[in-house]
Amino acid sequence: MGLLVRAILRATVWASGVFYRVERVGPDLPSGPIFIVTNHPNMLMDPLLSIWAARRRVRALAKAPLFEIPVFGGILRSLGTLPLYRVQDDPDQLHRNKLAFQETVDSLAAGDALLTFPEGKSHSEPALAPLKSGVARMTLAAEEEKDWRLGVKVVPIGLAYHRRHRFRSRVVVGIGDPIAVSDWSEAYKTDRATAIRSLKRAISKGLEERTLNLSAEGDRQLVETADLLYARARDEVGWRERQPLQERLPRLQRLAKVFAWLKVSDPERWERLARRLRGHQRTLELLGSGEADVPPRYEAGRVAHYVLREGLQLGLVMPAAAMGLAAWYLPYLATGFYCKLVKPDNDMAATVKLLTAVVVFPVAHAGWIALAASLGGWPAALAVAIALPPLGLIALRWLDRREEVWEDVRLFFQVIRRPRLRDRLSERRQALADELDSLEAAWNSARQNAEAEERRVS
After folding, report:
1. For the range 102-110, what are the long-range contacts, defined as Cβ-Cβ under 8 Å and sequence gap of 24 or more?
2. Whole-model pTM?
């Protein structure tokens, strides 16, 4: 049972890396006892991606009610998951946390990697929720019990999703620098409560540095629009370039902070800026732009060369991609249909799609194998069994590239039809980029003044 469950887990972790285009950034996790802490905006996808990025065996901590779910609870036990008893679940069970804590200490003493979510919940909020103090309390107490020789490190892993509910959208898995718990030993001996708060702040800072935190969900599109237009107006990114999310993330984080400050300090200026950004985005959508943008001018020869080159490459791969699409398109539709049927919350949508796919796709695979066996015998069945998975991956890559090429070509022809719109777009882009420069300078000045005042007071 344990081996089967672990095989299913590995397959599901791999599937999460197919569901998203994952970008892993940061150092490898250290050896020895570590406590991985991750933000939690996307239900089951968050632990799967964290395990995928860890590249070592991980034991998770999960809330106790999950262990009572039929079948699922048995799976959690088979994986060595540790239960946590929360007051909001059942106050009468809190005494059992003593046993859970001892299991945690023993696991760390054995050099294990543990995983938990210090926000204490999966949620759809656009920013980190306030962290619970459990990780700080457990790791400090574990180090104290082992006379500060355990060597536990807390490793923040931040998950930044582009469109978390969408298949083949991007996600950055950012691994932070390890936080050595023993650095708080003297503070813990002097004042436990203060040391716990200090370590919790360090953990929170580690997660904030690797996630995108917005003041409102409605700001997400505005921040992304501002980032793309600014990077292109300042020649930081090519007009057709789809920059990896990990390279965009620092700019997105900075803009999110600037926008949050502007909302509070000058609401009227914020509303004017938001209207201009929305107008810019509507113009891009009218031209058929997604992540690409409209260059100041097109060179017909270069455009023709691009279309011929990309069209030839897509055409060469099309037969294999078509076979992959024919085999896997109906199972893909089934996952979307089931998700629409159950109507999950935003933080559950990707999980529902993935779990449906983990069931539907193997069934479809087995069905194709059986059909091949009935028509051509076991040689045909073996060929189908081996060929279908890579054909599906080829189809995915083909579709990703076809979407980008089609967007570029459509954008080119729309601009030819609306040359004046392109000129207005260029002028607006430059004006908005200048406005963003001005805002960032004002934000930096306000931040420096606040830091100077804080130092003066302290």
Report:
1. 104/61, 104/138, 104/142, 105/138, 105/141, 105/142, 105/145, 105/146, 107/33, 107/59, 107/82, 108/33, 108/35, 108/139, 108/142, 108/150, 108/152, 109/33, 109/142, 109/146, 109/150, 110/33
2. 0.92
